[in-house]
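Input sequence (255 aa), recorded before submission:
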Amino acid sequence: MRIAICQTDIIFENKQSNYQKAQEVIKKAIYNAADLILFPEMSFTGFSMNTEKTSEHNLYERVLSWMDSKELAIGFGWVKRNRDLAENHYTVLHASGVILSDYVKIHPFSFAKEDQSFVAGEKLCFFQLQNYVFSTAICYDLRFPELFQIMSKKASFIIVAANWPKVRIAHWNCLLRARAIENQCYILGVNCIGEQGHVCYSGDSAVINPNGETVTAQQHQDGAMLFDLYDNVEDYRLKFPFKQDRREDLYQRFR
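Predicted structure, token format:
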């Protein structure tokens, strides 16, 4: 499976400009025979608490109109109103119009007061594409390893879509590798670059294999990074089967 990871320079709170940029990136991904294209968190607005400006009622039809191929699936982040607050979504949409996955961020970033504008999600999401099983997480979720242990029981590939700032990029790089190693799965980190509302983003999008090795990465470039993915996760787990020694019943007793 060929994946296009889009490390975009998001124009802060400017939907129309970001929609236009996304369409151009999608065209290139289709030309390069990508099966799945992934955008960062809040793909078309950047990380903003101004939910009156950033929210959408339903973005699916607009995104579908950008795709002239029946082979390409797209993952994108967006904001949906939910009564007084909003939801931070990451949706994966097949070109046929089928919603493969619609995840709501489980851990709002309280340090930046995201929890005052967004409700916390309550469920994990999984989807299958060409017999590959994926799950999704958003940005701050990366700091919570329990989530990834659960996801990796079903998913061999975990997408982490983010607006992760440059000031903490060392954490991003370290945690992507840690989540891959401890779960023996692929981690696909999709970050943005540029400046949004006086916050600087340096990218560092990457694909990390189950051994914790960076198999492809992109630091400061704006655009898509292509990667051919293979499901060899079971091979890693058979060669070094440490996950079988987890004592989850015991861990529960320590709570």
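Checked by second reader. The radius of gyration is 17 Å.
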